[in-house]
Amino acid sequence: MDSRKIAIIGGGNMGVALAKGIIQTKWANPSRIMIAEPLKEKIDQLKGIAEGVRVSHSNIEAAEFADVIVLSIKPQIMLRVVGEIKPALKDTKLLISVAAGITTTQMEEQAGGKLPVVRAMPNIAAVVKEAATAICPGRYASDQDVGMSRHIFESVGIVVEVEEYLMDAVTGLSGTGPMYVFQILEGLSDAGVKAGLSRHTANILAVQTLIGSSKLIQETKEHPAKLKDLVTSPGGTAISALHSLEKNGLKALLIDAVEVAAKRSGELGTNHKT
Questions:
Q1: What are φ and ψ of residue 20, in 5° steps?
Q2: What's the CATH superfamily of 6-168?
Q3: What are phi and psi of 252, to 5 degrees?
């Protein structure tokens, strides 16, 4: 169990998921966690996360309390909040951001000094502890800072380290990725209903098919193309379906979607310089 105090600024789904993950993996005692949330109606809910967790309306109070500050807020307000808590930011503290597009340099400049900063991009699957998170350090972040950040996000899933220039690509792929999956699952469920299944049955089969297929790739470590070939027997149903997918450009659509999301991530940082 780590002895440092952690502040999570932003009590939305991601902030709550991180707090629960940290507590459930026993990486930090609940009494060493504070969540800052501006919406009064959320305060009582946040207090119910675990006995001992502190909750505040004040971002600056949370920043003063903590050794590690996780900014779980939208990119549109990220730099404004960093400026707000600047009086509490000492070079001995660690600042972690989960905002798309906002660079470590932007946060360092807004905070002033030589504050250690780590940028992270998790996804909403953190709520069920299956997030895919990429992290990258700023100029002043040490290996220990990166290790601490890794521990925090490993409490809600898996973590990879990348160079910062790849973070927009990460945002387009895994950060935005659950949306692609939800769309695909909705389409598969609709297709099952059209073919005669009940909505309930179609949903169950579609979700389990995705889980099972993903686990097969994860455990065998085979390339998806090789596994695809295993189920496309000559003249069978799978090859017929594959022909339809290729004809309608499914892979091209997904590539375009990731590219557009990655581009938008970069624009968020460019459009919020102060």
A1: -65, -40
A2: NAD(P)-binding Rossmann-like Domain (3.40.50.720)
A3: -65, -40
Distance CA 228, CA 123 (A): 26
Per-residue pLDDT tens digits for 222-261:
999 999 999 999 999 999 999 999 999 999 999 999 999 9
Dihedral over alpha carbons 159, 163, 167, 168 (to 10 degrees): -150
User: What length does the chain have?
Assistant: 274
Boundaries of CATH 1.10.3730.10 in the chain?
Answer: 177-266
Which positions ≥6 away from 81 have C-beta within 8 Å?
A: 9, 59, 71, 73
Per CATH, the number for 177-266 is: 1.10.3730.10
Q: Provide the 3-class DSSP secondary structure of residue 240.
A: helix
> What is the CA 44 to chain-centroid distance, rounded?
25
Residue (of 15, 9, 16, 7) closest to 49 by Cα position: 16
CA distances (Å), origin 52, targets 4, 24, 36, 98, 258 = 15, 13, 14, 25, 41
pLDDT tens for each residue of 146-163: 999 999 999 999 999 999
Residue type, 158: I
The whole-number pLDDT of residue 34 equals 93
The amino acid occupying position 244 is S
DSSP per-residue codes, 30-57: GGGEEEE-S-HHHHHHHHTSSTT-EEES
> Which segments of the chain belong to CATH 3.40.50.720?
6-168
Contacts of 85 (CB under 8 A, 6+ apart): 9, 59, 60, 62, 63, 69
